[in-house]
Amino acid sequence: MMHLFDLAPELLAAIFDAIALSRQFNRLMRLRLVSRQFKYFVDNTIFRLRLLRDVPELSYHHTYTFVTEYLAYQVWVARNSKSPLGRIWRAAVVFSERAGNKAHGTLMETLKTLCDLPRVYVSGTSHDRRRSLFLHDFSAWPVDPSQRELDEDLCVAAIYLGDRPYVERLITQGWRFCDWGSFWGDQFLSYHRKDIVSDVFGSAFGAAAIKGDVSMLCLLISSNPHYNLFDPLPLPLRACILKNAAKFGHSDAFNFALDSGPLALGRGHGFVYAEYSRLRDAVLSTQIVDNYRRGIDIFVSNRSRFRHFGSLEKLLAKRAKQGHVDMMLYLLTLGASPNGRIVKCPTWDCEMYKDGPLLDSVKGRSLDAVKLLLQHGADPNGFPDLRTPLMFATWLSTLSIAKTLLEAGANTNDGCPPPIVLAIAKEDTPMFRLLREHGARLDTPESGAWAMAVAEIRGYESMVELLVQEGVERGALLRRCSGRGEILEFPWRLLHPVVHTDSLMEWRWRAWSPEKRSDSSVFRLSPV
């Protein structure tokens, strides 16, 4: 029998194209895990067919490298066009040549670096603009960019890449950046209108702030004819620096913003205290302990009330989700409880529920954060059976986190549905094996029968066979656990087509009320 990968490359590409077009995207992505050859052909198919444009809720945070590779490929395909993607390619070529290295590897690295900037830039704008580089087909782009627009692309790219001589030459030619003139006060965003802005890469000052390059920020500020070394920077500029320094972990830029003049924390009226709000937001989002402490000290020294700071546990949970271990450790030393509960309210049904730092660390897929919380006494079983950390670890297919939770004593059978059912729903055989090794049951109606129902209705034949090997009968009835007489409305849709989503909050399961059932011991799962 001929091996699959012995076939001609063009035939293999056609086979994988057919597989991709017949499968849900997340099922296709799981094929990447089979082998290096599968990964190569699956990625090639996703890139060529531009499949990411059909995934509206793609999580950039957890697929950073893959998305960068995807966007770089799309730029390469459109390299000869006048579209925004072609303009990214043009900038990459120019600055690779300026660096004196025209090798393909250097060019592609420059390209990937530049692909980061439009992703960051558009993420802060409207939903339509945020995904424009993924959704639009630029193959027949009708608009020719002006020479000024092309020059602005190169200008912002130079700033992001740190090409100081290029920027200095522009300044000598009369280019002005962050030209704030005489405005002050409440015109928080108007500096963008007076800055150099590329419609591909964003604003020049914003690019320097995202990069955290203090010397470049100083160079741009000095180009302003109104600049005075002894005057404080206008608030919009400082707010831009603070926000990005906190978000991307730039300690020097954070301190530069605070050293650029005093903050009038009490200036404002009603609920609007601009300088207070910007410093508070930066303090709450920074991942650097020294920056956090300095920000808090400013509030204390100004005798400012800590409005909307929230509890230490709330901040711990936020840092846990981002995987900021240093900040987590500092908050724990201040007394934050690893078992604290934070009340949240999902927008789809306004039902209150309580999460904790451990659950948020699992959602953020941060193994180091999970380990730190467990070392400080976090209880992996102290959660409602609809929102256990092991359920989320299973659903997210984070095997290392699931193993860590199990080694810390997480109960494999707690959860509704049990984690073993979620492993089947995700076609995750390694996770299934891990859970079984740690005692996950399949001999109850709401474990084995539920798992079989999911596998059969979703058409996961490999999972059906796996369950049969474990002793679960085909077509097993799903029976309601005794003692649950209430109607349940929670985020599960185990038998609904939305099963392909990566978000647990997109799932929902419904139990039929006892008065509508002839047999009160039986319940069904039905699409809502």
From TrEMBL:
UniProt entry tagged with the keyword Transit peptide: no
Coiled-coil positions: none
ANK repeats: 385-413
Keyword ATP-binding carried by entry: no
Source domain of life: Eukaryota
PROSITE patterns recorded: ANK_REP_REGION, ANK_REPEAT
Pfam assignment, any one: Ank_2
Entries under InterPro entries matching the protein: Ankyrin_rpt, Ankyrin_rpt-contain_sf, Cul2-RING_E3_ligase_SR
SMART domains, sorted: ANK (SM00248)
Transmembrane segments: none
Keywords: ANK repeat
Name assigned to this protein: Uncharacterized protein
Originating species: Xylaria multiplex
